[in-house]
Amino acid sequence: MPGSSENPCSPDLPPETSKPNAPMIQLDGVSKKFGDLPAVCDTTFSIGRGETVGLVGSDGAGKTTLLRMVAGMILPSEGRIYVGGLDAVGQRARVKELIGYMPQRFGLYPDLSVRENLDFFMDIFSIYGQERVRRRQRYLGFSNLLPFEDRRAGDLSGGMKQKLGLACVLVHQPQLLILDEPTNGVDPVSRQEFWDILAQMHADGMTIFVSTAYLDEGEKCDRLMLMHNGRTLASGTPAQIQAGFGNLEEAMIHRILAADSTLAEEHFGN
Ligand SMILES: Nc1ncnc2c1ncn2[C@@H]1O[C@H](COP(=O)(O)OP(=O)(O)OP(=O)(O)O)[C@@H](O)[C@H]1O
Ligand SMILES: [Mg+2]
Fold first, then answer.
1. The predicted structure's pLDDT at residue 13
2. CA-wise closest residue to 151 among 141, 138, 135, 164
3. What's phi and psi for 208, nearest 5 deg?
4. Ligand 1, atom 17: nearest CA belongs to which residue?
């Protein structure tokens, strides 16, 4: 079994890095139910190393639930999830080291400064001394926040907060970034700036799995996964998904309406 369970009593094991030839994410028949509600249904999908994959779909489609399962925040009801070839459930602690996860509502400490928020995350990962100084320069520089390092996080603009959130989840130098609607409600210029940072990370080889409600952002991804009612309706490059339609939005709406009418026929025989 590829995902043999780790021994939590053996903290001295050498840190296991991911298996270099394995996909960064592999989902095999993954489902999640909340009570009777199937939030994610029988999803099989693979994301290669260095890919940027966008997760798009309707409200309540199951995007957050899927991302939370990959990030190890909740367990699947069925199926297996591998991150870098490691079992996301059985080897959860090691898998978490590979991942930088920015939830839909990322919590910064509003009364702490930009620098103090970043330092808080470096405390969690025991990054001290010269290395702490180096990473602070790198990630605050990367996100153009160095001039604002003494500003209270609560006084930052929406776009700056999101960039600080990104810097915080990067400090432990993950291999996989999982971002849940990171630019929601952010103005277009700041969204562009945020995606310029993602493009730079992509060029450096980072794997990025990002949900978004903005289809101009979807177009920037290598591949897209379209979800509706817990199911994957389509996956492929933006051009493949859009083929035969005027734009990505039309293609998505068409697929979602077609899925709804199929469901209605199954239920009511219309
Ligand atoms: N902890 C939970 N308990 C019960 N139901 C949940 C829970 N989390 C999510 N759900 C339900 O599961 C379904 C999928 O929710 P999810 O948040 O994953 O969708 P989403 O695609 O991220 O939606 P949005 O675009 O609004 O963020 C919804 O019907 C939601 O109400
Ligand atoms: Mg969501």
1. 37
2. 164
3. -130, 125
4. 64
Say how many C-beta atoms besides its own lie within 10 A of residue 45's C-beta: 19
Q: What share of the chain is helix, strand, coil (3-state, %, to 5)?
A: 40, 25, 40
Q: Look up residue 220 and give its two tokens.
A: 């920037």
- 153's CB contacts (< 8 A; 6+ apart) are 108, 109, 110, 111, 112, 113, 114, 117, 161, 164
Rounded to 5 degrees, φ, ψ at 99 are -115, 140
What the chain holds in terms of domains, given with CATH numbers, is 52-62+101-268 (3.40.50.300)
Q: What is the pLDDT of residue 105?
A: 83
Q: Give the per-residue pLDDT at 17.
A: 60
For a substitution probing ligand 1, which of 65, 69, 181 has the most ligand atoms within 8 Å of its CB?
65
pLDDT at position 268, please?
67
pLDDT grade for 267, boundaries at 50, 70 and 90: low
Residue 219 pLDDT greater than 50, yes or no: yes
Residue (of 63, 84, 81, 69) closest to 182 by Cα position: 63
From the CA of 211, give the closest atom in ligand 1: 22
Residue 141: per-residue pLDDT: 92
- Please state, in angstroms and as integers, the Cα–Cα distance from residue 155 to each residue in 10, 112, 114, 119, 158, following that order: 43, 10, 10, 18, 9
| Cβ of 58 less than 6 Å from ligand 1 | no
| Beta-carbon contacts of residue 97 (< 8 Å; ≥ 6 apart) | 15, 172, 174
What is the residue with the minimal CA distance to atom 31 of ligand 1?
A: 60
* CA torsion, ordered 262, 263, 269, 270, to nearest 10 deg: -60
8 Å CB contact between 156 and 118: no
